[in-house]
Amino acid sequence: MDLQEWINKMKKTLQWPSLSSKFLLGITATLLLTEMAYLSGIAVVCGAPEHKDFLFCDSDRLIGVEGDYVIPEKVKESKEELSEAPPERETTAGEAKEENEALKDDAEKGTLILVNKTHPLEKNYQPEDLTAILYFAVDRSEECRFMRKEAAGAFHEMVEAARRDELSIVMTTAYRSYSFQQMLWESYVASEGEEAAARFSAKPGQSEHQTGLAVDVSAASVDYRLTDEFGKTEEGKWLAANAYRYGFILRYPKGAEDVTGYLYEPWHFRYVGKTAAALIKENDLTLEEFLIEIE
Ligand SMILES: [Zn+2]
């Protein structure tokens, strides 16, 4: 039985309409669920019950239980030494050629797509290869738990690497359809006014989340909020230092509002592929600046 089958079975058995709603019933239900998952030998539940931080993984990642936690296999692997920044390097002509080829490939796959206030997406744009994300905060919208296939794989690798450093990072939202963004935007405008909303939220069509390449993350240390404080947490610092290894960039860095159009967002990461991510990190660029550089 794989994870999805198990979830479906649980939904049927427990007759609850959605998996996330049952967590809201509290700790007894979540512990019961943890136990059932473990007895079924199927799913993995990681995180602290009191935070409802439950993450589901495939059975092949299941290895054992520590306290109330079930630990994915990869967490057990020895820790890698991770440095803060890419090592200084001299690029040979051969490497530069390889780099260019990789960037060309990524551009063709759409991985380097630019979406911002001046480069909107079509209303009906929807990636074809949306793939379910395994590590998520359960109390957020289920329809946003997807990324494009390659980005989803890279995101899983990144979260698993963070786990090896004993940090638990979850996705709060990833893919958002045009209509979902429209609903969000309208609610922000209603509560904050249009001018204020435009500094932190995208209008429909102008959100990177519609590409399926962007992901918002958080952690228990900030109670799963999307807040500037996340940048000061161990999880936020780890991501800022290491995301490039998995092809992600911190899309809205501090002090780049005039280039990106958005305030600092230590929780928003964008998949651009490993080659672009390393170059962007190494040269301290935004995606906008990088795309001009390689034009
Ligand atoms: Zn975001």
Offer a concise description of the structure.
The protein is α+β, with helices and mostly antiparallel strands and 295 residues long. It has helices at 3-14, 19-23, 27-40, 73-76, 93-109, 149-164, 178-192, 194-200, 234-242, 257-260, 274-282, 287-293, and strands at residues 44-46, 55-57, 62-66, 69-72, 130-132, 146-148, 170-173, 214-218, 248-250, 268-271. The model is unreliable at 15-31 and 41-83 (pLDDT under 50).
Description:
The protein is α+β, with helices and mostly antiparallel strands. The protein folds into 2 domains: about 5-75, no CATH class; about 95-295, Muramoyl-pentapeptide Carboxypeptidase, domain 2, CATH 3.30.1380.10. It has helices at about 5-15, 20-25, 25-40, 75, 95-110, 150-165, 180-190, 195-200, 235-240, 255-260, 275-280, 285-295, and strands at about 45, 55, 60-65, 70, 130, 145-150, 170-175, 215-220, 250, 270. A hairpin with an 8-residue loop joins strand 1 and strand 2. Bound molecules: zinc ion. Zinc ion binds next to strand 8.
Q: Mind sketching the topology for me?
A:
Layout lengths: L2 H12 L4 H5 L3 H14 L3 E3 L8 E3 L4 E5 L2 E4 H4 L16 H17 L20 E3 L13 E3 H16 L5 E4 L4 H15 L1 H7 L13 E5 L15 H9 L5 E3 L6 H4 L7 E4 L2 H9 L4 H7 L2
Antiparallel strand pairs: 1-2, 3-4, 5-6, 7-8, 8-10, 9-10
Helix pairs in contact: 7-8
The structure holds zinc ion (ZN).
